[in-house]
Fold this protein.
Amino acid sequence: MNKQEISKESQEKNQNFIDVYEGNIPKRIPISIEVDGAASIEYAGMNLITAQYSADKIIEAMEFTNELFDTDLVVGFSSRLPSFYKMLGAKNYVMGGDGFMQHPDIHGIEPEDYNELISDPIKVCWEKVLPKFYAELAKPAPENMIALLKMQMSKDLIMGKIGPASKRIAGKYGKVTEKFKVKRTRAPFDLLADTFRSFTGISSDIRRYPTKVLDACEALFPLALKLGMPTTEPAKKTRVGISLHMAPYMREKDFEKFWWPTFKRMVENIVDSGYGVSMFCEEDWMRYLDYLYELPAGCEMQFEHGDPEFVKSKLGDKHIIQGLFPLSLLRYGTIPEVEDKAKEYMDILAPGGNYIFGIDKSILRASDLKIENLQALIKCIKEYGTY
Amino acid sequence: MELKSEYYRTLEENLKKYEIPADAIEVAKESIQGPEEALMGLLSFLIT
């Protein structure tokens, strides 16, 4: 889509994000509120258990949800679709009884596999982790090859419809047309924990095998960097998404030793290559704000917990603050309460720029909020959030 | 830092493995290295 074909409304929304990512004051606070695919299907009144198998149903739901909520971003899609995982016999993503995709805490390797992991993490992924996560991939050839090909074909088929539909919906409703978040990766320690050893496994490993854990983080660093590094022309608006997981559950001295060094180096590498980083700081990161401040300027940090004044004072002159607004208020509050709280957050966080409006948690299910509250919130930001 | 693995090859390694003639390097970049990089994307999806 060239610039002439993009509506003025979309161009302005694109520009608000670009301004913040480039360190400028936007005309209006950009809104980074996203709605999960499951919630979108539920808003459209469809059966979550069945609709997720159909690209056409997903698109129909996206159309409904994007008309329902005047968000800046196109919302209503999740890439974790059951067809992909069913074809592979997945154990790491399974559909719950109500149709929502669950992510059980399973681990890919045992402690005795650390040396192999340190020697060649990609080899361990293909030879040990994938056959453990996916029953079909543990079968001998050609069954495993056929399963993987079918899954990829299903993915291509669905994404071949979703991609163009997202662009059409963006155009129709005057939403952001640029794709800012082009890659996703994990902090090396989080990759080690979440993919290879699990939450409980890694918590024990840092006591029993500290050197192996450190060596594994180093071995995973080039892989995590590779997974996240964009291949497009460098630009600050081109963002690498990183969901941060384990740090809030660690003692600070363990965080400093095991978690932080490879993560910091990875972010520095991405930023040195000319791109931006957008991270979601799950749980409570308030004791780590001084560390986050050390990261290269212009990192977008979405927070789940924290006092906005404290976060602004610690990070606001260097990084882009996002999140914090309580999703619970959208569920239990009234429209005036939502509007008052939104104004309070904007008054604190917007001065001087470096702010994107976001909420503290993902909107996963329709029941997470009252529709009229989110509609009122978006309207309030658009009216009150101008510079 | 370069990524080293038995299951990931750089463009140079792929050109050698598939015996691509030296004068075809420029035109073969996308068709030869593209799938190698796409496979990393698939791996990322499957392990995270």
